[in-house]
Amino acid sequence: MTARADTIAIAGARTPAGRAWQRFCSHRLALASLVLLGLLAALALAGPWIAQWRGIDPTLTDLLARFEPPSARYWLGTDDVGRDVFQRLLDGGRISLLVAVVAALLSALIGALVGVLAGFIGGRLDAILMRLTDSVIALPLLPLLIVLAAVDVRKLGVSESVAQSDLLSLYRIIIIVALTGWTTVARLVRAETLSLKARDFVRAATALGASPLRLMLRHILPNAASPIVVATTLSVGNIVLFESVLSFLGLGVQPPHASWGNMLTGAQELIWNAPLLALWPGLLIFIAVIAFNFVGDGLQDALDPRAERR
Question: Helices 276-302 and 225-248, interaxial angle, to 10°?
Answer without folding.
Answer: 170
